[in-house]
Amino acid sequence: MISTRTIESIRADFPLLQRTQGKNPYIYFDNAATTQKPRSVLDAARVYYETLNSNVHRGVHMLSQQATDAFEESRRVIQRFIHAKEDREVIFTKGTTNGINIVAHGFSRAILKPGDEVLISGMEHHSNIVPWQMACEYTGAVLKVIPLNDRGEIIYEEFLKLLTPRVKILAVVQVSNALGTVNPVKEMIADAHRLGIPVLVDGAQSTQHLRVDVQDLDADFFVFSGHKVFAATGFGILYGRAEWLDKLPPYEGGGEMIKEVTFEKTTYNELPFKFEAGTPHIEGALSLAEAIRYIEGLGIDFIAARETELLSYATESLAQIPEVIPVGTAAHKASVLSFNIRNAHHLDVGTLLDKQGIAVRTGHHCAQPLMQRFGIPGTVRASFAFYNTTAEIDAFHQALVRSIGMLV
Ligand code: PMP
Question: For the structural domain made of 7-30+299-407, what CATH number should be given?
């Protein structure tokens, strides 16, 4: 479905987009860090507390049962959104980082042995590097890294060379938060599966931009965060193929994740509860389900098309400024424009843009090894969502030219 709504009416759904700085509308180009929330998502959390608030899964009383129904319905909405086969394959987490840690911990306890390899790419976020380094440290496994070309793309021949029977898991980002590169994860998964290697996809930057179908991708694990998909912070999803989730031990112990506890022994609950110890982030789940309803109301194809238009408009706009050095020029990109200004520090550029009412991110974007690959300390990153406009990009262009005038 393609939305026929005007951009003005869509923007009116987002209270934060009504903010101003001085006389001007505030321009929010930090969507890769977190997205703004539509009113329906904000209302879902409020209505939950006003009408349903109680603990889930445990109560015999009406409220607890209604809250449990709403909570579990959210799981099914999310299941349909990513097209998981079963709702028990959708684990509620604190976010992408938490999801990766659950899997890396499971692999370090149950799978990895000395000399095994974990394969990641050179453009991973720290949250898809450090948990695997920790897993390698505990088990004696070795972390291997797929190199990138100068455009910020995986060098596919090198990837194939690194794909050997020693690799026990491939963990790769679908869309790079620092460069915007869209990786060919479906092809990578097919190549990994030929050798029986499971694959974790970091979807922190993909579900908000592209249609994701975990069965079509054939992913073994897929993780993402609610707050980057127009929902609450502190909530996210670990999708795992049931056979794999069954093989991994639980990450945390406590209430909800048990079947029976004695002082001698505990048996664990079935999926998804085995991985959901403690009282969950109930309104987080409801807010993500509501955000998905919002996305589906607009149509993910509408969102993808609009963002492609914004990204190419912004790329062309910045190409007119001679001092701009783009970082990440992959053939297939989504929503992120990273760059530096010749003879200026990224932090100074970001600060001057902020003074002019434009929010961009500066720094290493939690991808220090990637910055080392490009020999730079960081970049300025503008990242777009469907609610941004070409008029905002024009204002950004002018503000950037003014900033450069002050700096170089
Ligand atoms: N991976 C990628 C590609 C990301 O962009 C981010 C967030 N910047 C993360 C992982 C971590 O997400 P969170 O902080 O929501 O756990």
Answer: 3.90.1150.10
